[in-house]
Amino acid sequence: MSIKQQGFGLIEVVVSLLILSVAVLGFTAMQGQAIKATDESLERTQSLIMMRNMGEKIRVNPTVIPVYSAAINTATTTIPSNTCGLNGTIKACNPTELATAEAYFFTQDMSNRGFTVNLHPCPSTGGGSDSNIMYSWCLISAWGDTRPTIGTDIKTKDIGGDSTDGKMDCLTSQPAENNESTKGGKYHLGATCMFMEIT
Q: What does residue 143 show for φ and ψ, rounded to 5 degrees?
């Protein structure tokens, strides 16, 4: 008597399920990477739009850039006494008061969206010497595990200390020897930040 096999055996079903599960896991990993890339793109776009807006405000009021820098870098949560009409109340103000008010609202808006910001002299265009003809300022925005700072910290330790905070600097600093082949102002590998040069 001859027996004819009908349908699938248990081994064929198990192998089919294994192949299907590997394909589904691969697809899931690919979707995760796509979502991560989309989030990064959205963060960069939001940051760029807000930084460009602030950059234009600084260019309109260039005589008080150090005031902008101090106000942005301290990111106080105390509203300035004179908001220069930026919160709906109309009141005259001088360039210093305007810079303080604009920096306050800018840092609060960036913070509400998960960004931290700083304004520093650009390391690749004169560093800390405003007598250099190429001197300019860098508006830096960072998110995630990155600080909006210029330095050598790549999560190993804080600059000037031994404690680890799990964060890294955004940009490399200008080397002391000012060697053209090792210019500063480059992104550290893995940093989640961006900068805009403001002249």
A: -150, 170
Neighbours of 10 (CB within 10 A): 7
Q: Is-contact 151 159, C-beta < 8 A? A: yes
Rounded Cα gap, residues 100 and 113, in angstroms: 20
**Rounded distance between C-alpha atoms, residue 110 and residue 113, angstroms:** 5
* Structure confidence at residue 44 (pLDDT): 83
Cα–Cα distance, 40 to 22 (Å, whole number): 27
pLDDT for 130-163, tens place per residue? 555 567 888 999 988 888 988 887 776 555 555 4
Continuous segment of H or E residues that includes residue 44:
helix 10-60
Write out the two tokens for 135: 């001197």
Domain boundaries, given as residue ranges, for the chain: 67-113, 115-199
The two tokens of residue 175 are 């080397």
Q: Which of 82, 120, 78 minimizes the C-alpha distance to 98?
A: 82
How far apart are the C-alpha atoms of 183 and 175, rounded to whole Å? 7
CB 138 within 8 A of CB 122: yes
Q: Indicate the pTM of the whole model.
A: 0.72
Nearest Cα residue to 115 out of 170, 46, 197, 66? 46
pLDDT tens digits, one per residue of 10-31: 788 888 888 888 888 888 888 8
The segments of the chain whose pLDDT lies below 50 read 128, 163
